[in-house]
Design brief:
The chain is an alpha+beta fold. 28% of the residues lie in helices and 16% in strands. A hairpin with a 2-residue loop joins strand 4 and strand 5. Helix 6 crosses helix 8. It is globular, with a radius of gyration of 21 Å. The protein starts with 6 loop residues before the first strand and ends in a 12-residue tail after the last helix. It binds the ligand Nc1nnc(-c2c[nH]c3ncc(-c4c[nH]c5ccccc45)cc23)o1. The site of the ligand Nc1nnc(-c2c[nH]c3ncc(-c4c[nH]c5ccccc45)cc23)o1 has 18 residues, from strand 6.
């Protein structure tokens, strides 16, 4: 590479995956064949409207980072969304002004799934991956930006969502899950903060805990997810399937309908440091479904929150439910 040249280049998903396995291998002591210079900016961009300069794509010269603007009055403007290991900023290409999300992941916290799953499994309702650049030990992952913020932010500032909005979000998350589950991918962290809003769609983000199953059952080595949204079978650690995401979506639907995560109203977090025992011992939180919830949507919730994963609806099955096909004449 000529001197002064950066190591960032345009490429395809295969090039990006090779780059990610190189650097994640490099950090886990696996000797890599490539001449990755961890101290120069190296990386792969998938989009030509991200403009390289001499093989560089640097923060504050080729691309600028901004804190997300105050989307809602009451949300603390310092509230920068962060994934399992990474802070997410709004980014803008200096030449094309393309607006993106940029997640900064310290190399020591990088999980290959954080990038690999989004790169391999593109879908309308999965935040699109635009590229990744490694600079001074931090991986900058550029993605599709949900400038409407997350569903959690919307709930924290505007309170419970109307049923039609809940149906709109639920349907799009189910479309993403139907696609991911058909490829054996479990997201493992379905919750309001991992669903972000755009003008005409909602997309899933944060695949840092995702796995692709090799068979029908995934035997976990660790507990993955966020407690209030975890399924009973996941809490038991005896092996689970893609159906765990469906239960987490049911828990997310309760949060959207009531404005609070399941369990926390009956068992305040101050008094209950952990919800794992509650989720294991008690029946699914069906009593938290508001009285005002329509019968059709209630039956979707009963199916999604079924304690037995075998009897729980799949994403494809739930998508066929008439409650998720609102006709225009419904209020
Ligand atoms: N953990 C994680 N991994 N990837 C993402 C991600 C990709 N594109 C995005 N677009 C928007 C937001 C976002 C979340 N909360 C917000 C509040 C205000 C404004 C924006 C947001 C997050 C993302 O997030």
């Amino acid at each position: 590479r000529p001197s002064g040249q950066g190591g960032v280049q345009y490429g395809n998903v295969t090039d990006l995956l090779a780059f990610i396995s190189c650097i994640s291998g490099a950090t886990h002591g696996v000797p890599t064949q490539s001449d990755i210079h961890l101290n120069k900016d190296t990386g792969v961009l998938l989009k030509k409207d991200m403009i390289l300069q001499n093989g560089h794509y640097r923060i504050d010269s080729e691309v600028l980072l901004f804190p997300w603007k105050r989307l809602y009055r009451s949300v603390d403007s310092a509230h920068i969304p962060k994934g399992a290991f990474g802070r997410v900023h709004l980014a803008q290409d200096c030449v094309t002004h393309k607006r993106m999300a940029c997640k900064l992941i310290p190399l020591e916290h990088l999980r290959r799934s954080d990038v690999e799953i989004q790169a391999r499994f593109g879908h309308e309702n999965v935040a699109e991956l635009f590229g990744a650049v490694l600079r001074e030990g931090t991986l900058h992952v550029f993605m599709e930006a949900g400038e409407g913020g997350s569903v959690l932010e919307k709930l924290d500032s505007c309170g419970p969502m109307r049923e039609a909005e809940v149906v709109w979000v639920t349907r799009q998350v189910l479309l993403a899950l139907e696609y991911l589950h058909s490829h054996g991918v479990i997201h493992h962290d379905i919750k309001p903060s991992n669903i972000v809003l755009m003008s005409a769609k909602a997309v899933l983000v944060d695949f840092g805990l995702s796995v692709q199953m090799s068979g029908d059952v995934y035997i976990p080595r660790d507990l993955r997810g966020t407690e209030m949204y975890m399924s009973p079978e996941l809490v038991l650690c005896g092996g689970h399937s893609t159906k765990t995401d469906i239960y987490s979506l049911g828990s997310t639907m309760i949060h959207m309908l009531t404005g609070s995560a399941p369990w926390v109203r009956r068992f305040p977090r101050t008094a209950y440091p952990s919800y794992l025992y509650i989720i294991h011992k008690l029946a699914p939180p069906l009593e938290e479904i508001p009285e005002t919830c329509s019968a059709p949507l209630r039956s979707v919730l009963h199916s999604a929150l079924h304690r037995n994963p075998a009897l729980r609806g799949s994403a494809s099955h739930l998508l066929q439910h008439h409650a998720l096909h609102p006709t225009t004449n419904q209020t």
